[in-house]
Amino acid sequence: MISFSRREKKWMPYLLFLPVLIYLAGFVGYPLIKALGIAFTSEAGKLSFENFITLTRDYTFWKALKNTLLFLIIIVPLQVILAFLLALFVNSRFKGYMTVLYIISIPLALSDVSAALMSYNIFTSHGFLNKFLMSLGIIETPIYFFGLGLSSRAFWVIVLTELWRATPLVFVILLASLQMISKDYFEAADVFGFSSWQKFFYITLPLTMPSLQSALLIRTLFAFQIFSVVWLLSGRDIPILAGEVYYQQAELNNFRLAATYGFIIALICILISWAYITFLKTKHLEA
Amino acid sequence: MEKQRIPIILKIKQMVTIIIAGLIVIWFLTPLVLITISAFALPEDYYQIEKVIPTHFTINQFKALFFELEAWKAILTSIKVAGLTMLLSFVIGLPAGYALSRYIFPGKNFLKLLCLATRMFPLMVLAIPLLIIFMKIGVSDTIWGVALAHTAMVLPMIILISSSILSSISVDYEEAAMIFGLSRIQAFFRITLQLALPGLAASAIFAFIISWNEVFVATILTLTNRTLPAHILSTAMASPDYYKFTAGFIMAIPAMVFIFFVRKHLVTMWGISLK
């Protein structure tokens, strides 16, 4: 076999990257531009803001936006804090921490559909929670969590489900970064007589900050696209942006509005990313 | 007094640790255990409100779901799509990962940023235009269509993970091989690849799981050739409760089996790909 000459080595990396660039251009770049086009085209086929106007006039749009943001604001901070506490706990390397680690990671492999069904199993009228409470005599008739008019209760079941399902995602990121903090820092701290609190505030926290920030960002972006859990547990009673994309396309066959919804989701995601990067100065994202 | 106090504090610390660990384990395992019980429970037992834990079990729901409701078809579709995704993303992504780990070239940071940006992008925006494009080229409602979309989703992650895994394998091995007369390609395949295989295999399974679980795009892009989650999304809520649980269980099991196999690489993989 011939070995590559020095000159060929210069364009080798680009050659290796070429399939990726072609693929992404074709299956991400092109559809993106197309989505833009669809969102800005009216029924008659002309360039216009018609779709956006239709959207803003529909009160379901505002409901969906509000609900999506509500889920975001409640779920994400809770998750990050819980995940951080879990990561700190597991990082203390107590006996058997590996097993606990595996168990915490199981939801990583589960789809949101499975998680939704598991929650349904527990909270439905014949589910385990109701049966359990009734057998103890605490309640006489089942508590209903799902159904028309019960969207506020379903909301909290959804929050709980997401907490159960997605906290491990954040947990793993944070644990990885905690494990990378060099023991030398702590040993030096011991020499200087730092207390545990001081070690946490002056060593652990600052060094995990970049990781916390990217975990926050990523989790926010994903939480914004919440779909299956809400759809399966409450249908359109709790409208959410992603659900509306699905509804417009799959059930109303209105691909124009569906694309417009999708565009708005993408736009807000880009805005969120930009805001995080600008205000939190996560330098390592560029590294 | 000092000598007697210290062990007690340690013992309390130990107990608290065990209690917390126990609570964590219960919190994460309970829904799984419960749905397993419900998946196999006899419907009569389920509808009896006094029976908290069913005492009679059956695999009838399984059989019904599998054959009459054609879950086996959906499972097969899911396997094909996930397998294709895994293959495609590796064939396209591994070379790029190699480039990132072994070469320094202008535009490297930009490409890395591109991967990250694509990773953070909501895939659902692409679902609609992809459907239209696929209808034009004739791959809508096929396994290939969904696999192509999933590959687009998984590709940036595979590139970043494989670049990280390959970086951890010292270049010295390849250079030593090349001194002995192997070409770069040979050195890669005979040495580096073998060493990176466990990590790369884990990330391949990882890509498989992500495709297996993906529901939004799969539902929009297909009508008859549905993957398992898409199938469940559209049929589960309309079926009686006990079918729902069996369906949830069917979806969860393969994923948990896979995770068991890659558990050693879990923290590293998610840690890298989502940083």
Topology:
The complex is a heterodimer of chains A (287) and B (275).
Chain A: H1 6-39, H2 50-57, H3 59-91, H4 97-105, H5 112-123, H6 128-135, H7 151-179, H8 183-191, H9 196-224, H10 228-234, H11 241-251, H12 255-280
Helix pairs in contact in A: 1-12, 2-12, 3-7, 3-9, 5-7, 5-10, 7-9, 7-10, 9-12, 11-12
Chain B: H1 2-40, H2 43-47, H3 60-68, H4 71-102, H5 108-120, H6 124-137, H7 143-167, H8 171-179, H9 184-213, H10 216-221, H11 228-235, H12 241-262, H13 266-273
What report would you give on this structure?
The complex is a heterodimer of chains A (287) and B (275). Chain A has 287 residues and is mainly alpha-helical. Chain A folds into two domains: 1-39, no CATH class; 54-285, MetI-like (MetI-like fold, Orthogonal Bundle). Chain A contains twelve helices and no strands. Chain A has helices spanning 6-39, 50-57, 59-91, 97-105, 112-123, 128-135, 151-179, 183-191, 196-224, 228-234, 241-251, 255-280. Chain A is flat. Chain B is built from 13 helices and no strands. Chain B has two domains: 2-47; 70-273, Orthogonal Bundle (MetI-like fold). In chain B, helix 1 (2-40) crosses helix 12 (241-262), helix 4 (71-102) packs parallel to helix 7 and helix 7 (143-167) crosses helix 9 (184-213).
Q: Which range best describes the helical content of chain A: under 10%, 10-25%, 25-40%, 40-55%, 55-70% or over 70%?
A: over 70%
Largest sheet of chain A: none
At CATH level 2, the architecture of the largest domain in chain A is: Orthogonal Bundle
Low-confidence stretches of chain B: none
Termini separation of chain A comes to 36 Å
Stretches of chain A where pLDDT is under 50 for at least 5 consecutive residues are: 1-5
Average residue-wise pLDDT of chain B? 82
- SSE-based structural type of chain A: mainly alpha
What is the assigned CATH homologous superfamily of the largest domain in chain B?
Answer: MetI-like
**What coarse outline of chain B follows from CA principal-axis ratios?**
globular
Largest sheet of chain B: none
Q: State the name of the first-level CATH class of the largest domain in chain A.
A: Mainly Alpha
Q: Tell the overall outline of chain A.
A: flat
Order of helices and strands of chain A: HHHHHHHHHHHH
In the residues of chain A, how many domains can be counted?
2
Per DSSP, the total helix count of chain B is 13
User: In CATH, what is the class of the largest domain in chain B?
Assistant: Mainly Alpha
